[in-house]
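Narrative of accomplishments. A recurring question from our advisory board has been how the design workflow behaves on a single, concrete structure rather than in aggregate. To address it, we present the structure tokens for one chain from the evaluation set, followed by the sequence designed for it. No filtering or post-editing was applied between the two.
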């Protein structure tokens, strides 16, 4: 990183940003419980306390406030399924400016209504952000309105950079590192461009979901990389292609990029709740997940580490899924499958081996006259304890498999344990992500036609913009290529799980 390439323009832009007409200086709050557990001083920048529960109001308002009067009078257009939509709508309302917000048809009703409540016109277009963005930019050109990008714009970047200004002001003493969630890069670019000019010794560390790591891949490649698909759990940072300007600033000023998985994000949501009694959205907890992973990796102690709680717009229905995954993310739950003899007393014998531990889940199903398979969750202190349990069971000659990090087992099989289907010949199993909208399943079935038989189906709503579906389909070997062509045509994200041990043990 070349700190001498710092842009004085961004320093001035941040200092002159017109954000405080709508935003307020948020708290830098100590996370006392987390600090004690990690043996470091952890501070949380509470951007979830803005009026729209997100930092996005800063960049959106600064962009609109800097538009010439004639352009402002014509109105603005934005594309977003979340916090940027609310930021632009709120800014437009304050500046008495017409706003059209284009949102994907998959956007949950709660987010659509939140934007409408801010007097913006909402248009639902396409299945994803890219579709909505293309439509919005074309509409802006057609109507002569200004398109407000979510991150790749100097005024938007500078508006987000005011968070860095506040941190330096609020904590003038030593700071070791600041952790920032990264989607398109507007937040980290603005903060880094400001902070590194004044306090170059502070590490700026970007954190991305492992399935939405467009910035990390771009920095590694030395050019912007467009992802084929992104994970949607942390939808606030689910970006396939980072901004041109945000990429440039990240290359120059950001010290490190790292990724975290879904379970680690869920555990971080719980950590933040325990310290603040506030539930942040998945993207809002990514920085804390990054702090925890960084401390575990580096074993640092006594440092001052800051995380940005960047948003709290979470659907209530998602809390069930978050709660289920938090214990695994904190390494406080181990999940495994075990094979036990099918004879009187064997079930009790197996349970007695776990007597000293809290059982969080237990599923049992007769398999055949010789054996049975059990799906077990246990409360542990860390993943090493899970390994110790597995090793002790193996010493007792039980066949056991660790499913703690098996995505299909955690999402579907734990809710489906119930028996095998020996009559389902040539069954293959696929895990899909369906767009969460009316007709998604019907579209799948219609295009599949009567060519193949569905032998198993499981869907569970997680209150998100997408549905997770597990399907068993009988496909004769000579028709494999035809089925793969069908999958390419339908265009839904999928994984072939036919060889997954959780399926083989409990359902196959």
């Amino acid at each position: 990183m070349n700190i001498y390439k710092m842009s004085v323009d961004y320093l001035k832009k941040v200092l002159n940003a017109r954000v405080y007409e709508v935003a307020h200086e948020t708290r830098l709050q100590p996370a006392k419980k987390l600090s004690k557990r990690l043996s470091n001083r952890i501070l949380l920048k509470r951007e979830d306390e803005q009026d729209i529960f997100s930092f996005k109001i800063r960049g959106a308002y600064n962009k609109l406030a800097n538009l010439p009067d004639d352009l402002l009078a014509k109105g603005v257009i934005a594309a977003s399924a979340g916090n940027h939509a609310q930021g632009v709508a709120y800014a437009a309302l304050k500046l008495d400016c017409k706003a059209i917000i284009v949102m994907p048809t998959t956007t949950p009703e709660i987010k659509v209504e939140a934007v409408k409540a801010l007097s913006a016109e909402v248009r639902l277009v396409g299945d994803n952000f890219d579709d909505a963005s293309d439509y919005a930019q074309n509409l802006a050109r057609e109507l002569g309105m200004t398109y407000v990008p979510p991150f790749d714009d100097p005024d938007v970047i500078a508006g987000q950079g005011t968070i860095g200004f506040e941190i330096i002001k609020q904590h003038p003493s030593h700071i070791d590192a600041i952790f920032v969630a990264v989607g398109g890069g507007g937040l980290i670019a603005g903060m880094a461009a400001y902070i590194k000019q004044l306090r170059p010794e502070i590490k700026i560390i970007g954190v991305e979901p492992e399935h939405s790591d467009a910035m990390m891949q771009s920095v590694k490649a030395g050019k912007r990389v467009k992802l084929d698909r992104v994970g949607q759990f942390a939808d606030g940072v689910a970006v396939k292609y980072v901004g041109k300007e945000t990429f440039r600033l990240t290359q120059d000023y950001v010290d490190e990029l790292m990724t975290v998985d879904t379970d680690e994000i869920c555990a971080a949501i719980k950590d933040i709740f325990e310290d603040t009694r506030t539930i942040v959205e998945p993207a809002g907890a990514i920085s804390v997940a990054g702090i925890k992973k960084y401390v575990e990796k580096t074993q640092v102690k006594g440092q001052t580490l800051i995380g940005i709680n960047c948003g709290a717009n979470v659907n209530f229905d998602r809390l069930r899924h978050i709660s289920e995954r938090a214990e695994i993310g904190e390494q406080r739950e181990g999940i495994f499958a075990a094979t036990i003899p099918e004879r009187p007393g064997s079930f009790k014998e197996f349970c007695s081996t776990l007597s000293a531990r809290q059982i969080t889940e237990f599923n049992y199903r007769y398999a055949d006259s010789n054996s049975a398979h059990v799906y077990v969750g246990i409360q542990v202190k860390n993943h090493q304890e899970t390994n110790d349990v597995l090793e002790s069971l193996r010493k007792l000659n039980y066949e056991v498999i660790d499913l703690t990090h098996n995505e299909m087992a955690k999402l579907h099989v734990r809710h489906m344990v119930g028996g095998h289907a020996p009559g389902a010949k040539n069954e293959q199993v696929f895990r899909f992500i369906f767009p969460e909208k009316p007709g998604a399943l019907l579209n799948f079935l219609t295009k599949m036609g009567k060519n193949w038989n569905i032998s198993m189906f499981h869907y569970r709503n997680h209150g998100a913009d997408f549905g997770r579906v597990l399907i068993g389909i009988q496909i004769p070997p000579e028709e494999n290529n035809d089925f793969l062509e069908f999958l390419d045509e339908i265009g839904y994200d999928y994984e072939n799980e036919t060889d997954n041990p959780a399926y083989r043990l409990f359902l196959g």
